[in-house]
Structures are given as C-alpha cells and as structure tokens.
Amino acid sequence: MLRGYRYRLYPTAEQEVLITKHLGCCRFIYNWALARKNVAYQSDGVSLSAYDLHKRLPALKEEHPWLKEVNSQSLQQSINHLARAFTNFFKGRAKEPDFKKKHSPEQSFTVPQKYYVDFKQGTVKLPKIGAIKVKYHRTFVGTMKSATVIRRSTGRYFISILVDDGKKPPVPAPPIPAQTVGIDLGLTHYAVLSTGEKVENPKHLKNSRKRLAVLQRRLARKQKGSKNRAKARLKVARCHQKIADQRRDFQHQLSSRLVRENQALAVETLNVDGMVKNHSLAGAISDAGWGMFCLMLAYKCREAGKTLLWVRRFEPSSKTCSVCGYRKADLTLKDREWTCPDCRTPHDRDINAAINIKRFALAGAERAVEPVDSLPLGRGMKQEAPSVRVG
C-alpha cells in the first residue's frame, strides 16, 4: 500500500537557488511538452507519447544548456506528469491540461530515485542539490518510491516522500446498520450525523476576513516591483496559508474521529462545482472544503478497513420523512424544521437528511446493482440508486 509522508525542509540560501532552478526547468519542460503535443495533434492528428517526448530531450538540452544544471530524471518526470494529466482528462477525472504559470501559489518537482534519507542526521540528500535539513516528526517503514519537493507562496519548503509499505489494504466487512452513521454536510453546521450530533462549522475564512482585507489593502498601496510590495505580498500569502492550515487540521481531526468511531460511513455526493455558481454562497462553500473532507474520509476508510458508502446527489434526503417515507415536495432551503403532514413527526432538516442518507446507502448496499421500485404515490421516494462502496 502506498502512503505519503510530508516533512518541512530548511534549505540554505544556495540550496534555495538550486531548488528554484529545478522548479523553473521542470515547468519549462512541462510547458514545452504540452505545446509539442498540441501542435502535433492540431497539424498532423498525431498524439505524441511520453516516450516520443523523452527522445527529444537530449536535443533540447543542446539547444538550452542550462537544462543540464538540474537533475535529468526530474525533467523526465515532468513529461510523465503531463502524460498522466492527459490520461485523467480522457477518463473524465480532471480538466484538460493547461500551461503552468511562473507565479503559481504552489510549485513542485519530483525526484523518482537516487535520494537518501538520514533520520539520525535529519537530512535528505537530493541529486545536484545536496543534503537539505529536514524536520522528521515521524518515521516510516517501507520502500521509498519517489520524493516531491514543494515550494509554497509563503516561502516554505516541504518534501513529500511516497513509500510502499508492502501491505495490502484490509478487506472491509459488510456494513452493520447499528454501526453505520450518515453524514449530512452543510454550512450552518459543518456536519450533522444521523445520531443527532451536530459539528459546528469553524468558518476559518470568515473569521480571518477582516485581517485579510487589511493586508490586501496594504498590498494594493505598494508600488509594483518594490521590496515593500514583496513583503506585503508575503504577509497576504501567509494569512491565506494559515487559513488553509486551520481548515486542513479541522478536517483531519473530524475525519479521523468519524472513521475511528464507526464501522461504516454514508456520505451524499455533492456537486460542489455547480453549488459555487451561487454567488451568495460561493465563499462559504469554498471555505467549507467538502471535497477535500470527502477525500480524507475515502483514504482513511481504505486504510482502516472501513466501508464508505456514497449516495447520489439527486436523492431527496431532506424532503423525505425518515419515519414514514412521505416526500414534502415544496420544502425550501430556508425551512430548517418541518412537520410531516402524514405521520405528524417534527423534523430537524439536517438530522432528517443524515438519517435518510444512511437509509439510502444501506438500501443500495443490500440491493446491489439494480435500483428498487419506488414506493406508492404520495408516500414514495425516488428510486434508490445503488451506493458505491469505497474500501
């Protein structure tokens, strides 16, 4: 099983220059390869493979001698990243690859092999860069596959080491209804569980908005190209990074607790790209980071041998009574509480949705592939789509 371990790097001034050269050369190779692929496809209808582009690298190095100053394997890996990006695009998992910008918030390059980790000395030795001081806050056991050096806009450096521990992911057991929890993600409360528990939304961006606005106004007043503008830009970047770190820490703690305390989890599939088109809620939805939270649940369930069930986004989880199955078609977003006109049961909108998410997920897991027949008119739900199991 592959696992990633990220550590903080502390390079010297000379090593920072070498890292910057690697970042620039790898970005140049990526953009060059993307341009060659686009031209070949548009003019001749030919799709250049990674092997075809690798064969052109020696001639490109003769044309641009400064490419020889960096690790050759990192340049080759940039072409492999482009090939993987096109594969994800054709399979519908990502957007079409675009050219990389020089001033993007986060830049990286990969070293596939021939690097050495020294836990005792607290260093990692990279080709053509040397031994860089690193903070090993935890150790790992396994075969190192590759290392990725990352530079953020705040000037902080990290290294992410991919390790194969030789273990196979545990096979998840069938979901047990009593030990399964449904999760309804929202804005007022970040997560509402089918058990009735409500997790408050920390709203990190909203809480830091005043400070961020002050720093952005100071940045706007600085003269372009001046050192004071660079300092102001760094302060804005650090404020953004603090918000992102707070959000990631909250998501890690919540996702770890949910996976640890339950045998199976049920989550509704959300169309976040479509939801952020609502300009009134776009900022709050982006601040919540539901997509990253669901990714954390997925890989933590896989590592722990737990089951993660997905419910399709069109299931009427909020409009359906969790007691009798009546569907209230006229329920609006502002209705946070409602009473079922059929069985007279009062409902909290979010708790009712979480209970229905659990019911839909378990029903889909039991009925396998084909959707079930809908219930009688007036008390019927949509056909329950089969859930997708991750684990």
Polypeptide structure, described:
- The protein has two domains: 2-164, no CATH class; 170-201 and 259-391, no CATH class.
- The two termini are 13 Å apart.
- The chain has eleven helices and 15 strands.
- Helix 1 (13-44) crosses helix 4, helix 6 runs antiparallel to helix 7 and helix 7 packs across helix 10 (290-304).
- The protein has helices spanning 13-44, 50-55, 57-63, 72-90, 204-207, 209-221, 227-261, 272-275, 282-288, 290-304, 349-367; strands at 2-10, 106-111, 116-118, 123-126, 130-135, 143-152, 157-164, 180-185, 189-193, 198-200, 264-268, 307-311, 337-339, 346-348, 388-390.
- The chain is globular.
- 41% of the residues lie in helices and 20% in strands.
- The relative contact order is 0.10.
- By secondary structure, it is an alpha+beta fold.
- The strands form three sheets. It has a seven-stranded antiparallel β-sheet. A six-stranded mixed β-sheet has the order 10-9-8-11-12-15. A two-stranded antiparallel ribbon has the order 13-14.
Helix segment tally: 11
- In total, how many domains does the architecture comprise? 2
Number of strands: 15
Distance between the termini: 13 Å
**How would you spell out the order of helices and strands?**
EHHHHEEEEEEEEEHHHEHHHEEEHE
Mean pLDDT: 89
Taken as a percent bin, the fraction of beta residues is: 15-25%
Structural class: alpha+beta
Helix content: 40-55%
> What is the 3D form?
globular
Reported for the largest beta sheet, the result is:
7 strands, antiparallel
Strands across the major sheet, in which order? 2-6-7-1-5-4-3
Low-confidence stretches: 366-388
Whole-angstrom Rg: 25 Å
